[in-house]
Structures are given as structure tokens and as C-alpha cells.
Fold this sequence. Notes:
Dipeptide-binding Protein, domain 1, globular, four-stranded antiparallel sheet, 24 strands, D-Maltodextrin-Binding Protein, domain 2, twelve-stranded mixed sheet
Amino acid sequence: MKKEIKDENGKRVHPYVPELCEQLRKGELDRREFLRTATLLGVSAGAAYGMAGKILGEPMVKEAAAAEDPKMGGTLRWGMQVQEMTDPAKFDWTEKSNVARHIVEYLCRTGSDNITRPYLAEGWEASDDLKTWTFKLRKGVKWSNGDDFNADDVVFNFTRWLDPKTGSSNIGLFASMVEEIDTGKKDDKGNAVMGKRMTAGAVEKIDSHTVRLNLNSAVLSMPENLYNYPTAIVHRRFEAEGGDLSKNPVGTGAYALAEHRVGDKAVLKRRDGYWGKKPFLDEIVYVDLGEDRAAWLAALASKQVDGIYQFDVNQLDMAERLPGVVVHTATTAQTAIARMQMDKAPFDDKRIRQAVQACMDHEKLLQLAYRGKGAPGEDHHVSPIHPEYAKLPVQKQDYAKAKKLLADAGHPNGIQITIDVGNTSGKWELDAMQAFREQCKPAGIDLVLNVMPSSQYWEVWDKTPFGFTSWTHRPLGVMVLNLGYRSGVPWNESHYNNPAFDKALDEASAILDVNERRKKMETVQSILQDDAVALQPLWRAVFTATSDKVKGYSTHPTFYHQFNEVWLA
């Protein structure tokens, strides 16, 4: 029987933490991964920094230079699309969550430093095998309607997320808490249609402020998963009271929704009775500047707004020359995927998918479409900045391979295919696909671009046989893969269904040792790359800009707005 380890305050420490410390001491683990993993295992951020400092013999947090004293008050005006904000569990755009984020909150919070800290949960413990996670909830937290926040709220949210009738992408994110069932329906070929539902006992209320999650398989990233944007905690009577946050904005957050008009603006006002530190800003106003991003920087330069959600890479030089404007850059796992639906002709033939894949020169597309501001993609949707990333052999453009695959698939004279492009993350998407169209020609592939407004693309993103879809940053590759590629999950836009991939992903998600996890991820990435489901030109850096009077702001790699510490000079 293993001896229980406790810290100086008598709190249980996960038995793997000493091993983490030893790996850091030996140089087998870098500081970033040490801090991330230790905090996921329940060590406080302060204690994790302290451990690392002692091991490395250097302070992990340097003394900050003297700064201006933050000032209370003022209105922050931010340029961003103002979208419908009905149900957080079904959010499919980060912009929706940014307005909601100041009203409803999360159990955990991952900062721009990739460290996950307690939020509505004051702390958590993981079992030795990572199959049981116990979350202690904060006491004294009040909903804006006066009710106490408690375990019933958390149980309600998990139960709702994992009910297929809800239609939440979270059912893929928390795959370790669901089971597969026969729906009783048949597909066109007479095969049973399988579905998913929450495993009995997966969510357990221990007491009024303690919730336990019982998983079917080990998962390290549970706290990080709980800051994915559709995991905001809504009130336990959310559905009974209409199920529309914009109409009944009950939350635990520091701000109350005063006004919300889709396509126009959203107004948030600081409310009394907030459980946490009082935010500096009196008011946050989101101003919808439309889809033309060229106008966003102009609005900032003319002082119509104090900050903008993002701007395109081809505007970088102009942004850096604007007086009184500060450019913020973040290295991210933001990307866009040219994905093919595996059950739609001609993409149901793996040879066709691989032939298209063989035409792509990822490095050239990075330079041509994104000025080299990022990294080349590798067609498996796991980024070099993800801690579990495994380096695979570099892919090479191969026209001879592409032509042979096409001939073997019955297209010796080439093929014409159409891809839908919506420029949902900027004009770089069209630039990338125009360049890729030229790369396809020598293989006899005629790539036709169907360019549409971004709003129209989002109406068909999960229906079109071939589309170029932008995906936001997640701190872990396994989070993206669970959301987008696991069999049968709502955001599986490619209709990918590979049990071997699902099994390998489960195995990788369960491993604590980062070096061993990379070995498993090599298998996961190789399967996805070989099946040629998602062609990925590049990973991109992202850019936002603010007035120089905006203080305390940093760009989150997922574009999450965390404005409680922002103030105006």
C-alpha cells in the first residue's frame, strides 16, 4: 500500500508529484510542463512555482517592475462580433463565450500562461489512477438572483452536457464519462446506429459543496477541460427558467448583462455582491464592427473602441505603425483544417484523400498565406506547443504518389473537387487555399474554391463534404481530438469513425509521464495523418490590439477575455 503524501498544510499530494519533481531535477521535464502537470494534480500554482524554484535554484517568479496603481472605474469598449448568446453548453464561437464569461463562470480557469487554477472550485484532488476527481466548491458564492451556488448546480450542468438531447460538444470532451448505446435506429445500410449517454454514477454529489467525477478511463486533463468555453456553469434552474442566458442572465460573475443586441452591442455592468475581488471596470461594452476586419483597426485608431478581438496577419505592419496602439501577439494552436467527410464520395475513398494530401507543401503555404508567423501543419491537429506533441517524419510533397493514388482510385486523368471557404478566421484562409489550388494542379487535381461569407460557412461547416474550418486553440492536443475526431461526437465534422484511433486516444489521455505520453501520441497522430482526414496547412500566431490606456490585459491563446483585472489609465 502506498504511503499517503501530504504538504506542509496537511493536504494530500498526488503520489506522482515527487516523480515530477525528480524529472524536473534531472532535466527530463521542462518547467512549463512541470507547472502545468503539478497544478492539474491539485498543487496550487504558488506551491508549484515554489517547488520548481527550489529544485532549479532560481526564483520562478521575478520581481515585477514598479507599475502604475490600477484605477477603479471607466468603460472598456471592445470591438468584436456580438452573436446570439442563448445556451453556453452549445456555444460554438469564442465570441459568444466572451460576453457570457463575465456573467457565468467556470469551475477552473486556465490563464494565458497555460496554468490551470481554481475558480468556482476552490481546489481538487485526483485519485492515484486518475479515474476519480473530487472537486471542492467555493462556499459563500451567490448567484445574481440571491441563490447559493452549490453542488446541485455542478451536477445539473454535467448531467445536461452529457445528455445527447442537449447537443453539447462537451459530450466529446468528457468521453471518459459516457458510454455507447444502441439507439434502436438503423442507417441506410441496415447497421445499428450507436449513440452516447452519461455512464450511471459518473457524477456524484458528496455533500453541498463537493462533487466527485467517476471516469471510465484515466484522464489527466480534467481541470483543463473544465475551462473549455462551452463548460460555463449555469444555474440549476437554467432550463426550467427558459434556457436562454441572454433573456435570463443569472450568473455568479462580476458583471450583469444590461443590454444585448445581436449584430450591434452587448453592455455589461459591474454588479454588487460578487464573491471575488472587485473588478476595476464599471462597464464593458462590446461593439459589433461587422465582418470586414479592415474596419476594425480603423475603429481602434479613431478611438471608437479601446481594443479589438483580433486582426489579420496582413495588417500587422499597419497596426505596428499606429500611434497610441499596442499590438499583442500570442503563440497558439489556432489553425484551420481542410477536412473531407469520409462517408461522402469521392472522399470515402482513402486514396483520393491521400492524393490530395500528397500535393500539400505545408511550409510554402505558411510563408505564402501567413508570412511565416506560425508553424507548418502536419495533418494531425496536434501542435508543437501542445505538451504531448510527438515529432513525426516531415511530410513531403509527392506528385508521383498523388498521380498513382488517383489512378488506382479510377481517376487516371485527374479529378475535380470543390472546397467551401468562409474566411472565418481571416483572409489568410482564402490565400492558403488559392496557393493550395496551384499546388494541386501538377497532380491533375482541379481544386475549385467556393468562397462564401463567414456567417454562411458556419451554417454548413459540419455538412459540406469538403470545407476549410477554423479551429481555436486548446491547451492540449487530446482536447481537440476528443472534440473533433472521436467517433460519434457532435463536432466530428469529417464523420471520422476509427475504433483504433479512439482506443489509442484513450491510452494517451491516461498517461501521466509526459515522455511516455508522447510515445502513445505518436501512434494517435500517425493514425490521423495516414487516414488523411484533416489537411492542415499551418499553425498561426494571433494578433490583437488595444489602446495604450488599456492596462492589465494579455492575449489569451484561445482569445478568451479575462477582464476582471483590466483597468483604464
